[in-house]
Specification:
alpha+beta; four-stranded mixed beta sheet; four-stranded antiparallel beta sheet; 12 helices; globular; binds flavin-adenine dinucleotide
Amino acid sequence: MFMTPTPPFNVEHDELRESIRGFLDRELAPHAQQWEADEWFPNEVFGKLATQGLLGLKYPAELGGQGGDYLHEAVLVEELARIGSGGTAAGIGAHVNIATPPIWKFGTDEQKQRYLAPAIKGEKIGALGITEPDAGSDVAALRTKAERVDGGFLVNGEKTYITNGVRADFIVTAVKTKETTPPARHHDISFLIVDRGEGVTSAKLRKLGWAASDTATISYEDVFVPQENLLGELHDGFKLIMANFQWERLAMALGAVGAMRLAYERTAQYARERSAFGRPLSKHQAIRHKLADLATQAYTARCVTYDALRRFVAGEEPLREVTMAKLATQRASYELMDECLQIHGGAGYMREYWVERAARDARLGPIGGGSDEIMREILGRLLGL
Ligand SMILES: Cc1cc2nc3c(=O)[nH]c(=O)nc-3n(C[C@H](O)[C@H](O)[C@H](O)COP(=O)(O)OP(=O)(O)OC[C@H]3O[C@@H](n4cnc5c(N)ncnc54)[C@H](O)[C@@H]3O)c2cc1C
């Protein structure tokens, strides 16, 4: 449906897109239904991606990466929808988009060798642990505590809704490192890279969509974390949270763009093939108009997202455009999936059809990575309201 290459992508990116598509269609998509039913995708998926160089697209060659940049990563993120399992895409996305970037940006050389290099090889799986039972949108309210002890920190607390929370070998964890009255909020948070081990326990959560991903609650009970696992500056962790928000939100927008395009294409095909009252569904004006609207929605979501991406890779720090892209794409994706489901009729309600899963998976978008309401709050500030 779309012409290629479209800026900010060029021919090289389109070639990468073709090769990623082929790999995902061949190696991962055939298993999606099973993994969703199992509520788990195998850890070997990370190894398979690593052999294709797909876990290190934006990371330097010295660490085993491909030496590319955010645009290469953007191609992967957009294409992950092709797996047909939001949960599998989410697990991969959490590893490459939120768990490893803070180590890349703020880690010491030694931390990069110990965590980032094996993460790029698919040998160590990462998670990002920020959200807590009483601190979600209000990140600064987090309470997991890290006390200074000889040689490091003793961590106690609980994280929740953590993607890769069961399988992760290391959890990039936000902790409180200072007690002040009143709380310093933005100046008392630090980040620790916590290895799975004594005192770290996970409990998997069941959810509406993203079934194949292991979203979990993680408890930390007297977990000793050595000083060398402090990531970035002490008490300056809020900076680290903010540093990756723009990419995380762009990645979510790109994920929605990929999912919307695929859903439109498949639904249009279904409407051409399925007949009612003696002609294909697509020849009924109401359905044809609906499909025209869906194609337009998929296209506009893509334009807004690509514009924000273009500004981001140009180094503009486009907070407003990225926020708008996240806000514009997430509920739009959910609504598009619902319309696609409707066009499938009863088949759309059946587990064996991709579309009921796509609709459930898309519901996370307006909640995760900063909810729609939080995006509106940010925009309200930026627009001087
Ligand atoms: C499947 C899944 C995977 C996730 N993966 C991760 C992960 O890997 N790592 C991680 O750290 N977190 C993860 N999260 C957590 C996610 O980022 C939070 O759920 C999200 O930030 C919202 O926080 P909350 O759930 O505590 O909702 P709350 O903050 O309690 O918000 C509840 C409702 O109130 C609204 N609200 C809150 N504040 C305001 C306000 N000021 N004005 C108007 N409305 C407001 C919200 O938009 C929401 O609708 C995941 C969540 C899910 C569901």
